[in-house]
């Protein structure tokens, strides 16, 4: 069958003068030859041609909305950068005013760390911390200062957002990658740099999870509903934070130089007992969340049952049944073919 010709026939027969989709499709199909003799490609041509004709206006509107969204995303990104720059300007001015008071300046820096979006500058900030620690290191020990700085950076980067695996993995990976780059540029101090970074990351993650645990008790109703939407994911993620931490280390090790790889894998093995505290706190937090919000989660599940009756859910169910029928038919044809071959051999 000439598919191009068939497509033109369908396009010519499809008309929007009919009020309903059923009528429009029915009219178009009646204009065609016997559909029972059509090949799969012919059926596909008919279906896609009708789909394109029926959804043309919706598709055009969707494209228009997507273009508007892209434009809005660019505006949001630009405005976010402007907002961040404005924050930097304010803190720079404040730092000039606080310059004569080291104690006040130190406290101001802590406020700054809590007030700006760290994610976009995470890598550069960690690199700056480690390089500065190396430059100011006079007694050959940078472990404590670097570890404490990385701890605060990790904590501040994690604490305000979701505790989901993807986000935490991204933050930890970014911090460790920055440390690896400095370590590989300073191989004689690599062990100290990587060891203190991992300890700081672990402590920062612990602190963020502990903060989450404490906030569960005072979480407002509105926040509870947001939390419930991601209830199962958070519970699951909290029960595997040690695995997540180790996976980040192993993944970054596999992408690094031989020397760095050896150091990281050795440090990861040595942190087995250090991670027990992380495991304990994570599971404890999961239990608190389960005890406090399981009732809310059950209510949410009951509410979700209503969604199962929606048109979208019913269509998914119908397509699942149809897919099973296709599989059964295909299997039946295969069995019949095999049986025919066997019977012909026996003859």
Question: Care to describe what's here?
Answer:
The chain has helices at 3-13, 21-30, 40-54, 56-97, 102-115, 122-136, 143-159, 165-185, 190-216, 221-229, 231-238, 241-254, 258-270, 274-307, 311-346. It has 347 residues and is an all-alpha fold. Among the domains are: 3-54, no CATH class; 122-307, Tetracycline Repressor, domain 2 (Orthogonal Bundle).
List keywords for this structure.
347 residues
CATH architecture descriptor text of the domain at 122-307 = Orthogonal Bundle
Range of helix content: over 70%
Classification by helices and strands? mainly alpha
Strand and helix order: HHHHHHHHHHHHHHH
Number of helices: 15
| Shape summary | elongated
Helix and strand layout, with pairings?
Layout: H1 3-13, H2 21-30, H3 40-54, H4 56-97, H5 102-115, H6 122-136, H7 143-159, H8 165-185, H9 190-216, H10 221-229, H11 231-238, H12 241-254, H13 258-270, H14 274-307, H15 311-346
Short synopsis of the structure:
The chain is mainly α. It is 82% helix and 0% strand. Helix 7 (143-159) runs antiparallel to helix 8 (165-185) and helix 7 (143-159) runs parallel beside helix 9 (190-216).
């Amino acid at each position: 069958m000439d598919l191009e010709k068939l497509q033109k026939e369908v396009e010519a027969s499809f008309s929007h003068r009919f009020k309903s989709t059923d009528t429009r499709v029915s009219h178009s199909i009646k204009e065609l030859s016997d559909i029972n003799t059509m090949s799969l490609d012919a059926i596909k041509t008919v279906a896609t041609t009708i789909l394109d004709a029926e959804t043309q206006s919706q598709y055009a509107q969707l494209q228009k909305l997507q273009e508007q969204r892209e434009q809005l995303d660019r505006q949001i990104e630009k405005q976010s950068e402007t907002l961040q720059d404005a924050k930097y300007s304010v803190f720079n001015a404040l730092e000039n005013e606080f310059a004569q008071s080291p104690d006040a300046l130190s406290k101001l820096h802590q406020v700054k760390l809590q007030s700006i979006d760290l994610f976009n500058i995470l890598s550069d900030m960690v690199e700056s911390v480690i390089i500065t620690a190396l430059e100011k290191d006079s007694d050959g020990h940078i472990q404590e200062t670097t570890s404490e700085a990385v701890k605060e950076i990790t904590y501040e980067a994690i604490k305000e957002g979701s505790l989901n695996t993807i986000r935490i993995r991204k933050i930890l990976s970014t911090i460790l990658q920055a440390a690896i780059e400095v370590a590989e540029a300073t191989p004689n101090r690599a062990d100290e740099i990587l060891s203190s970074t991992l300890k700081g990351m672990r402590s920062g993650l612990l602190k963020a999870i502990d903060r989450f645990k404490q906030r569960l008790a005072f979480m407002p109703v509105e926040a509870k509903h947001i939390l419930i939407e991601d209830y199962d994911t958070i519970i699951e993620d909290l029960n595997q934070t040690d695995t997540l931490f180790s996976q980040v280390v192993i993944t970054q090790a596999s992408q690094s130089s031989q020397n760095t790889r050896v150091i990281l894998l050795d440090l990861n093995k040595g942190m087995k007992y250090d991670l027990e505290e992380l495991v304990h706190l994570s599971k404890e937090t999961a239990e608190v969340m389960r005890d406090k919000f399981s009732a809310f989660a059950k209510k949410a599940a009951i509410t979700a049952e209503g969604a199962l009756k929606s048109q979208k859910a019913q269509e998914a169910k119908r397509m699942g049944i149809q897919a099973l029928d296709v599989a059964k038919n295909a299997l039946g044809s295969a069995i019949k073919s095999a049986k025919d071959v066997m019977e012909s051999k026996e003859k």
